[in-house]
């Protein structure tokens, strides 16, 4: 090989190294910028809008009034509390519904595991709004569930489900159940079956093995599932709108109306920001209580 | 479900099949019940796409008909909304796969300053409720007087798809052997060729998964879109708006067709994955 060629090779190598060091930046730049402009900066605008005063007709002025917060929160604290209560109930229901199922599929699913998972994901191939509307239809006063029950005289003829909290909680539980099943399935599937055998060998009953071996080891999965259900449920407004009534209004419905019907942007953004803050504080407190190691594992799921 | 009993048979009982305790069947029956519950609205949707109703109301089943499949595009507003949703989903999928895939590759393989911050933003975006994503973006557009419409829907959808693509691609890259690419470079491949021939095929499953996810998220999105759509109507927005007046059967038909399309794609990707493994 001639000296010039070696020189060239060295040059190319050096260039490649320099380029290589920058590759990460080039690859991350478009995505990073997009998220900065359309996710991070809008948060700042949300905060700034919430601190404005004025109305849609006269225009808004930046006043840095915090009074909007106190005012709107005192006006809508019922809906706030209701959203949190619904979210807690729905999260607990989804854990109860999902855990046995995830356990069975992970432990006994055999070669059909991916088929079961596909069935769990099937609802996602139907639009969220359409799915919820089907529940409106299923739970209707003379729909086939209540209609049949009424014909059999199992419930009174004036019994109804729509526009009650039960309908809203049912719809929410239905819509967010897959988000609980999947992380639970992943964490149970990763368990070593020998651990259960060891527990049995050491004279643990089935219940003890479940409570003292399986459950503690799947806490990261439960954590991930709770994050993926609680946060979206607390801010959902589609279920309350389509299945609920005047007494089931959640905070999401208030924000939606204030933004898009009343054009009361300051109050609406104050409420959104409060919701975001409340959820963030909740997540951090929850993460703290569980310990950071579990949180990192949950994030890794 | 048939599983072979492995317990040794102590006495020859030819007539009697080995009987399981009834408690063995609790969990499978329970699982199938929950799976049925998850699919119930899908059955109802498909069934009522065949319902022979007279007008716009589609409430009780009155007989089997295919007329809604023939008159699928009879409602102009609905057809427009569907076209909007489909074109938006395609554009969003392409853009977010390129941008999000690059981000995922950077997070999974390369070192750069601010990597921790970018990961944090990606994680925070996924954890942020859609309502807040939608309202904060609306605040930006309101304050800067950006007219809302088709274009702002695109911006919003790409924003919430990028992190999902990035995370799936990153997960895929993290499980790969980086030395393969270095071997290609040592053997004289240019970085571009090494990327196309080595890295890209290896991260392809991650990219495909991210693309499927982006398409599904975009075509289905209601919350973020409703805040940033202006006068533009997408399929979920149209259905939501029509829900007060009664949903025409065409919605069920379109829902059924989208469902079947998704099912075929998912089945195809599962089968393709299986074939690769063998």
TrEMBL record, chain A:
Thylakoid recorded as keyword: no
Membrane topology: Multi-pass membrane protein
One GO-annotated biological process of the protein: transmembrane transport
SUPFAM superfamilies: MetI-like
Major location (coarse): membrane
Compartmental location: Cell membrane
Alphabetized InterPro entries for the sequence: MetI-like, MetI-like_sf
Sequence intervals crossing the membrane: 25-47, 84-104, 116-139, 159-188, 209-234, 265-287
UniProt keyword Cell membrane present: yes
GO CC annotation, single: plasma membrane
Pfam families reported in the protein's UniProt record: BPD_transp_1
Domain spans labelled ABC transmembrane type-1: 80-284
Domain of life: Bacteria
Key words, A-Z: Cell membrane, Membrane, Transmembrane, Transmembrane helix, Transport
Family designation: Belongs to the binding-protein-dependent transport system permease family. CysTW subfamily.
The protein, known as: Spermidine/putrescine transport system permease protein
Source species: Flexivirga oryzae
From TrEMBL, chain B:
PROSITE patterns hit by this protein: ABC_TM1
GO biological process annotation, one example: transmembrane transport
Top-rank taxon: Bacteria
Keywords in alphabetical order: Cell membrane, Membrane, Transmembrane, Transmembrane helix, Transport
Cell location: Cell membrane
Recorded family membership: Belongs to the binding-protein-dependent transport system permease family. CysTW subfamily.
Protein name (record): Spermidine/putrescine transport system permease protein
